[in-house]
Automatic annotation (TrEMBL):
It is found in: Cell membrane; Early endosome. It comes from Rosa chinensis. The chain crosses the membrane at residues 23-42, 63-83, 89-115, 122-142, 162-182, 189-210, 230-247, 254-278, 290-307. One of its GO terms (cellular component) is early endosome. One of its GO terms (molecular function) is magnesium ion transmembrane transporter activity. Keywords: Cell membrane, Endosome, Ion transport, Magnesium, Membrane, Transmembrane, Transmembrane helix, Transport. This is Probable magnesium transporter. Residues 330-351 are annotated as: Disordered.
Length: 351
């Protein structure tokens, strides 16, 4: 009696591939990162020009509003944000948000070329890790949740878990703005970026809801008649204006190559957390997929950490080389660099 031998399943058979909506979201997210990464540099140039002739944004000035170069960067960022907005309408946040790593790479490289902000060799390695981590998440991202009305999104937002998260975020933002920013805004980078990231996690959830509403409206199911659509619109406008204000302060006060990766890590982490709570992305995935996504995200964190350390390592090397040159010149001049005492006088006193 002949036995039927089953052929081993190939990877093509086991891999289901990405849905058409996920592919659209992927393309839009990549385009968004290109525009946003370049906008960081253009806006930084505009902020520098505005600060040279007026009050810097980092100390509360708004002279950058009169600088055309800043508006070019702002328009570039708006184009990127529009593409990002559309991406959230087609793909889950856990797929779209980590692709912001590409904007880190672009801004770091352009900052090295245009702004002369040093990019260490380990910074290049960090960029590569960001790409690897993003690719891992893209290949294992969940399919988009099927939603047929904006009221479904509103019901998800009104669940106790997400309401508790939103209350924590709003409380933390008010504490940072009214207590920590007046004292530590100019010295601690995490204060400004903390506000941007916390508010950003709420704005992404509202952007996704609004994007779904517009997509359904264009497909023939009018969602503009629901008041929930306009509530989400109001939340988006409020959050985006808050993010823009404090991101400008962070860019004007601190190094761009440091602001971009730290902002990305915090923003992405909080957005994924908010999406998991609100849209329950991981409920539609196996434990293996979830663990793989987390490994990809940790890889991205490692890349952004290396990008952050690039500035410190470069500055440290420069400082140590400068001190070495000063010490060498001091010895040649017969002076002790530490105490300013002539070496020859010390020798004569010992004899």
């Amino acid at each position: 009696m002949a036995t039927q031998v089953q052929s081993p399943m190939s990877w093509r058979d086991s891999y289901r591939g990405m849905s058409s909506d996920n592919i659209k979201g992927l393309v839009l997210a990549l385009s968004s990162s290109l525009f946003i990464g370049a906008s960081f540099i253009v806006k930084k140039k505009g902020l520098k020009k505005a600060g040279a002739s007026g009050i810097r944004a980092g100390v509360g000035g708004y002279s950058y509003l009169y600088e055309p170069l800043w508006w070019v960067g702002m328009i570039t960022m708006i184009v990127g944000e529009v593409a990002n907005f559309a991406a959230y309408a087609f793909a889950p946040a856990i797929l779209v948000t980590p692709l912001g790593a590409l904007s880190i790479i672009i801004s770091a490289v352009l900052a090295h070329i245009i702004l002369r902000e040093k990019l260490h060799i380990f910074g290049i390695l960090g960029c590569a890790l960001c790409v690897v981590g993003s690719t891992t998440i893209v290949l294992h991202a969940p399919q988009e949740r099927e939603i047929e009305s904006v009221t479904e999104v509103w019901a998800l937002a009104m669940e106790p878990g997400f309401l508790f998260y939103a209350a924590l975020v709003i409380t933390a933002v008010f504490i940072l703005i009214f207590h920590f920013i007046p004292q530590y805004g100019q010295t601690h980078i995490m204060v400004y970026i903390g506000v941007c990231s916390l508010v950003g996690s709420l704005s992404v959830m509202s952007v996704k809801a609004l994007g779904i509403a517009l997509k359904l409206t264009l497909s023939g199911m009018n969602q503009l008649v629901y008041p929930q659509t306009w509530v989400f619109t109001l939340v988006v406008i409020t959050c985006v204006l808050t993010q823009m204000n404090y991101l400008n302060k962070a860019l004007d006060t601190f190094n761009t190559a440091v602001v971009s990766p730290i902002y990305y890590v915090m923003f992405t982490s909080l957005t994924i957390l908010a999406s998991v709570i609100m849209f329950k992305d991981w409920d539609r995935q196996s434990p293996t997929q979830v663990i793989t996504e987390m490994c990809g995200f940790v890889t991205i964190l490692g890349g952004t950490f290396l990008l952050h350390r690039t500035k410190d390592m470069t500055d440290g090397l420069t400082t140590s080389m400068s001190s070495l040159r000063l010490s060498k010149h001091a010895e040649e001049d017969g002076m002790d660099g530490a105490e300013g005492i002539p070496l020859r006088r010390q020798d004569s006193s010992r004899s």
